[in-house]
Specification:
- By secondary structure, the protein is α/β, with parallel strands linked by helices.
- The chain is 32% helix and 22% strand.
- It has 2 domains: 4-125 and 301-319, NAD(P)-binding Rossmann-like Domain (Rossmann fold), CATH 3.40.50; 126-295 and 327-345, Dihydrodipicolinate Reductase, domain 2 (2-Layer Sandwich).
- The protein contains 10 helices and 15 strands.
- Strands 14-13-12-11-7-10-9-8-15 form a 9-stranded mixed beta sheet, with helices on one face.
- The longest helix has 20 residues, at 321-340.
- The mean pLDDT is 95.
Length: 349
């Protein structure tokens, strides 16, 4: 088939460090169109791509019959409107996480994808990390027996340190644009990762979702959470913790530990060995796979190649709506639990 003409909607940091470079490196892709609320920014990122169009609106981009597929890399609150419009316009869609800011909008996106006949993929990039794939295979092969407990963490210094508009006025701190903070930025990744590693889903939540540190340019607490700490019960019965934080002032922590009846799997807990299996009475089994991406050290995520290959070869979505919905239901349950101070059951049916 001919090269896919890709449109980029939102030319901020995630586009600049992941989507655009990875599309540019893919032989089956032509970066054909760009839109950003800052037209100057869109023009700047489009400049290296001969013939690429810069659109006055995202509506113009998705209406262009020359565009085959789009990456939606806009603020959280706009995800549903843009993704649904693009699907209805016949475009394949790679949608940044969080999928949307309400469960109803997530379900509307899923319905639009089902009705469109086009491919929708949610950018849960931790599923494509080689260490996570190895850890999943080890766990599911019975390396540590039945899962008893777990802990998973994603923390860094906050989006104001790396956003395309860095500082306390970053859009990540604007409740109208994001509606959720660390829980939607980082927590959704680790929630989905638990689903991926274990094959289970979160069915019960007790959580604290709070603003503990971050302030805006006036010194007032930001209106979205900068920390989220949850106790999850999985459908298989294991109970453990998920922590998402924008106040880890040091090295990023993107670690996960699975505690099984016969041992444990430690993922990104050691600087040299990304996966370590420990069993009683045995020497540790250490695997050097590859370092994980961080905001400071970007490498190819594998997401773009998976998206493009699925379109080209007519394969199912690598991360379809129903997969993302399982994680989003847990995230929304965390918010509800924190508001009410109660345990929340998560309907994953």
């Amino acid at each position: 088939m001919d090269k896919l003409n890709i449109g980029i909607i939102g030319c901020g940091k995630i586009s600049q460090v992941r989507h655009i470079p990875e599309y540019a490196a893919n032989q089956w892709v032509n970066l054909a169109g760009f839109f950003d609320l800052s037209k100057a920014r869109a023009q700047q990122v489009a400049e290296p791509f001969a013939g690429a169009a810069v659109y006055d609106s995202w509506e113009d981009l998705v209406a262009d019959p020359a565009i085959d597929a789009v990456s939606v890399c806009t603020t959280n609150a706009t995800h549903a409107e843009i993704a649904i419009a693009a699907l209805k316009a016949g475009k394949h869609v790679l949608l940044e996480k969080p999928m949307a800011t309400t469960l109803e909008d997530c379900e509307r996106i899923a319905e639009a994808a089902a009705n469109s006949g086009r491919l929708l993929m949610i950018d849960h990039n931790q599923r494509f990390v080689k260490a996570h794939i190895l850890a999943r295979d080890l766990f599911q092969s019975g390396a540590i027996g039945d899962l008893v407990s777990f802990r998973t963490t994603f923390g860094h210094g906050g989006p104001e340190t790396w956003s395309v508009d860095p500082g306390p006025n970053t859009w990540f701190f604007d409740a109208k644009q994001t509606t959720m903070g660390a829980i939607g930025d980082l927590g959704v990744h680790k929630t989905d990762l638990l689903n991926f590693l274990t094959g289970d889903k979160v069915v019960e939540v007790m959580a604290k979702v709070a603003t503990l540190e971050k302030v805006d340019s006036s010194g007032n607490p930001i209106p979205v959470d900068d920390n989220a700490i949850a106790i999850y019960t999985l459908s298989g019965g294991a109970v453990g913790t998920m922590t998402a934080s924008w106040s880890f002032h040091g090295a990023e922590d993107n670690s996960t530990v699975l505690y099984g009846h016969d041992g444990m799997i430690i993922i990104f807990g050691d600087p040299e060995y990304q996966v370590i299996v420990q069993r009683p009475g045995k020497a540790p089994e250490k695997h050097a796979v590859e370092p994980i991406q961080t905001n400071d050290h970007q490498t190819a995520s594998g997401v773009i190649d998976a998206f493009v290959n699925a379109i080209r070869l007519g394969l199912p979505s690598p991360v379809p709506a129903e997969v993302a919905l399982a994680a989003m239901r847990a995230v929304f349950a965390c918010q509800q639990s924190s508001r009410t101070g109660r345990v929340v059951q998560v309907d994953q049916s």
